[in-house]
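Standup notes
- DV: blocked on the single-chain target, sequence here:
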Amino acid sequence: MKVLVTGANGMLGQDLCPILEDVGCFVYETDVDTLDITDEEKVSVAIATTKPDVVIHAAAYTNVDKAEEDIDTALKINELGTANVAKACAKNDVLMVYISTDYVFDGTKKEPYLPNDTVLPINNYGLSKLKGEEAVKKYCEKYYIARTSWLYGHHGKNFVETMLAMSDKPELKVVDDQVGCPTWTVELANGILKLIGAQKPYGVYHVCGSGKTSWYGFAKEIFEQSGIKVNLKPCTTEEFPRPAKRPAYSVMDNEKICRDWKVALKDYLTLRC
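- DV (later): unblocked, structure below
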């Protein structure tokens, strides 16, 4: 199987590409330096030339807070760029996998979100990713939209590394009233393989860690598994204001596509050593 990956140098891409190769895929790695997804002609030529069986569209604008002041750039990359990829995939009869986010939800639900639940983003990043989902649905017949959440990996800045770097502080406060599903990039990559390999019906799937926790609970588990004693205190979102609103509850039902988030975190920390 030939797979073209956009955003190959990103946190997900750097785990995804080797995993694809390990299962026998021939991978075309592209990133902003080799393929500008906002250029429709370049995207069209790249996909027509390489003739992949699958395009995994991992390239994205991911700065949640900055998107509040720069919605134009977020939409250019996440909506227009995705539309360009979707059009090229449709034209060449290529399966498209689009990586989306739990931030398409408003966080008011009290039980795990299902793929067909109502979407209502409360920040610009979530809006831009939702626009990308809509573009995929508009132009492609063969697609998987893989919504993930609270992503962390060895090849990028993430919550786990931030917490470990701050473990020497006299006191560490972490938000306890936002609940979601921590997801290791390797789990997401393997989840994508499950969608493709099992030839599941085309549509929207939730590919995130199983179970749920708050950011405080996530931090507590990180330190406990690492054997580090920290003066960790829970706080509210109001005590830790950010430019972009976050959904209070963005837990997603993943139909057991990925493992329990605590088990995945243990493997992440083991490989980190």
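- Follow-up: The chain has a mean pLDDT of 97.
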